[in-house]
Amino acid sequence: KMMAPILEELQSEYRERAAVIFIDVWENPEAAPRFSVRAIPTQIFYDAQGKEVTRHEGFLDKQAIVSTLTKLGVQ
Description:
Blueprint (H helix, E strand, L loop, with lengths): L3 H10 L17 H4 L7 E5 L5 E6 L4 H10 L4
Antiparallel strand pairs: 1-2
């Protein structure tokens, strides 16, 4: 829940360049096993082909997310 405002900002800032999606596994419990979520929060980054390229468990601040997106080639 602490990351929700950060993800909302990123959704707006990265519109048309990256899909930033927030899934609340408390509201959507079927999502946890589908995405192999073992800890909350978990951030999963995919490449343009939909292949998972990295995953982080725990809080991740905005700058760290931006850094990861940049490393993945998102401008």
